[in-house]
Task: structure prediction
Amino acid sequence: MRHPRRLAAFLAIGWLLAFVACDTLLTESPDPGEVFDGPIDGLSDELNRMFVRGDGNFEKVFTVAGGLGPIFNQPGCESCHPADGRGTPALALVRFSVGSDLVLLLGGPQLQDKAIPGSKPETLPDGVDTSLRLPPPVFGMGFIEAIPAATIISLADSLDADGDGISGRVNWVLPADFVPESEIGGGSGWQVGRFGRKASVAALIEQVVTAYHQDVGITTGSTTISPSGSNVTCRSPPCVAIT
Ligand code: HEC
Result:
């Protein structure tokens, strides 16, 4: 041994790390209820079961036999929102329109750039406006849904009248026809927008149904979307029921 003293020093540091500094050098696992992709503490059994069911659906990778496509962007939610988090630029999707016209008959408003065997991926029509969208993190959506509409309305401050450097206004949007009136953000008339870019969607169920439909090519059996409002049609095997 040419450097016994150096070896001794290394060993000593090793012991020190093992016994003294573990809790300061290593990260600790968070308490249950504090992880972003887990349920919050204190949910009822029924809500915990709903969480597990939803989480399973979110992780699911769809296959052709399971209803994927015919055209789609990715085969499942987690493909774009890994661990319920933000997607990378490679996962960005393209929406297109001509001004405010969503050009449904040209395949708008989203470019599905992948297809199952026997179908063709979409290509961008000429002369359309495009918008590149990065997948945002999706944890905490239930908290956004739980904010009373009146609170959001009362916090609106479009001209920064209170001088705190933050301005914002409510985006009033019409929910899709299939959103039940009992859902937060559902009902007739204009509702407070909460989800998606510039809070353009009022109800979480609408955001999710649209994601299945436009991003994964899955038409959910529990809702009907008018074929004229879609460029993905339900095919055999029949529509998948996502509950
Ligand atoms: C191809 C990528 C992609 C896939 C697959 C995808 N998403 Fe998204 N998701 C996005 C993008 C991009 C946005 C931002 C949309 C926008 O700009 O309006 C988004 C937004 C969302 C939001 C709103 C987040 C917020 O802050 O308001 C939710 C909720 C969501 N997705 C759920 C899902 C679910 C559920 C699935 C599976 C059925 C899914 N997503 C599949 C790309 C994807």
